[in-house]
Design goal:
The chain is an alpha+beta fold. Helix content is 16%, strand content 35%. It is built from 7 helices and 31 strands. The chain has a 7-stranded mixed barrel. Strands 14-15-18-29-19-28 form a 6-stranded mixed β-sheet. The structure holds 2-acetamido-2-deoxy-beta-D-glucopyranose (4 copies).
């Protein structure tokens, strides 16, 4: 009897061991390229089509192609409802072409703010699966995208044919890859500074992530977590910041001020934007701290407000030696940024504080985020957006590596 039981237990445990492996497939990998002219990041979508990464985008859209299969999604279909969950402000949306009884969607250009009516089509996302170290094999993932006319591409990087929305909605790319490929509903972003640093990486399924400088290390094991929030009617990812510190001094900006409007992550702004009631005390504190270390200010270069003579700044492996910016996050974790994330070289001899004051916004206006964390501050952080657990995992890469160190060469054999 005991022996039989033993066999049964063994068989069951073998089954449970085998089961996840057969049903969960490998994560899906794409290189993420930074465009120098616009500072936007793009990913290849399929043969020759490159889409701008918009983590706040609720849809995938691209220029209409003649080979797009016409797909008549009914107005009442789940897909149509999902695609219209987040109406674009200022875009008159009805969600339905009543004459032809097909779904209408409203692709949106995150740079110009323009939107246009379009239709939903079946398409394919061609990428590689990955073991977290190298590409493994090419896959063609079924997807639904909106198709728009060429006019909507204005101000996107040269060669971009649309936008890959990575928000938490049902028709954004993460949910679509998760359901077609049976990977976890999370994605990892590691944005590179571009140019000589090479391409960064996105992994749908969330990881693991290994980089060539330390091939045995899976950086997703080092993630720290903070809750992700969304706001009613807004697909963007918010985090809760309790306070901001410069070096070890708290900047006089209250939690209530930061909570009014919140703190949102955004790949479509190149540098972090601060609402005036956050920027002014922050810039004041920074200026005072820099004065104490005898850094000399030079004429500022737009859009930046505080610029310094680089020969009066010490340079280290963590960037210029300036007061460390620390965001204290909900859950007690800290997001720290040294000179590499807070100072940008704008021209020979001049480096500026890479935090910018929002224009045309009133101090304390709770309809506007207190802080929009932009691309420059997100680069070279491993960011894992977990849509199931509604949390953001983050990890600052050590100085000897960066997001350009993923090995995109397939293992032979
Ligand atoms: C998949 O990886 C191989 C090997 O690196 C590469 O040649 C190919 O372009 C990749 N495919 C896609 C769609 O990225
Ligand atoms: C800044 O300059 C003053 C006057 O020259 C000097 O006393 C002080 O030690 C300097 N501070 C630093 C941090 O170098
Ligand atoms: C920067 O500082 C160096 C050394 O103090 C000085 O020679 C140079 O003229 C300064 N540059 C500017 C733009 O002020
Ligand atoms: C990248 O991966 C390939 C295949 O495993 C390997 O041959 C090559 O040495 C790796 N390159 C680096 C820089 O680690």
């Amino acid at each position: 009897m005991a022996r039989l039981l033993h066999h049964v237990v063994l068989a069951v445990s073998l089954l449970t061991l085998a089961w996840p492996a057969s049903c969960q497939r490998l994560p899906v990998l794409v290189p993420v390229t930074k465009d120098r002219a616009t500072s936007l990041h793009t990913i290849p979508f399929h043969y020759g089509a490159n889409l701008v990464v918009d983590i706040a985008g609720p849809l995938v859209w691209s220029e209409c192609q003649s080979d797009h299969l016409p797909a008549d999604f009914a107005c009442r279909s789940d897909t149509c409802r999902d695609a219209n969950t987040y109406p674009v402000p200022g875009c008159s949306a009805t969600g339905c072409d009543r004459k032809h009884k097909v779904c209408t969607v409203y692709p949106y250009n995150p740079v110009t703010g323009a939107c246009a009516a379009g239709s939903l089509v079946h398409t394919r996302f061609v990428a590689n699966t990955t073991n977290g170290k190298n590409p493994v094999e090419q896959v063609s993932v079924r997807a639904v995208s909106a198709c728009a006319t060429k006019e909507l591409l204005k101000s996107l990087p040269r060669g971009a044919t649309g936008v890959a929305g990575l928000a938490g909605s049902g028709v954004a790319l993460p949910a679509q890859v998760a359901s077609s490929q049976k990977v976890a509903k999370k994605f990892l972003l590691c944005l590179s500074r571009g140019g000589v640093y090479g391409d960064g990486v996105a992994i749908f399924g969330g990881g693991p992530l290994h980089l060539t400088a330390q091939p045995e290390t899976d950086y997703t094991q080092s993630l720290e977590y903070t809750p992700l929030f969304t706001k009613e009617g807004n697909p963007a990812y918010y985090v809760s910041v309790k306070s901001i510190a410069l070096e070890n001094s708290i900047v006089p900006v209250s939690t209530r001020t930061l909570d009014a409007g919140g703190v949102v992550l955004c790949t479509r702004v190149p540098y972090t934007l601060l609402r005036p009631d956050v920027y002014l005390p922050f810039a004041d504190a920074f200026r005072t701290a820099m004065k104490a270390q005898n850094a000399s200010m030079v004429k500022s270069v737009a859009p930046f407000g505080l610029c310094y003579n680089t020969s009066t700044l010490a340079n280290t492996r963590l960037g210029y030696l300036v007061p460390t910016v620390t965001l204290a996050l909900e859950g007690g974790k800290k997001w720290t940024m040294t000179g590499v994330h807070s100072m940008v070289d704008v021209k020979r001899g001049t480096a500026c504080l890479a935090f910018v004051q929002m224009k045309g916004v009133k101090a304390g206006d709770g309809n506007v985020p207190a802080m929009i964390v932009g691309g420059f501050q997100l680069e070279n952080f491993v960011l894992q957006f977990d849509l199931e657990k509604k949390r953001l995992g983050f990890f600052k890469l050590p100085f000897f590596t960066n997001c350009g160190h993923f090995n995109f060469t397939r293992r032979s054999g």
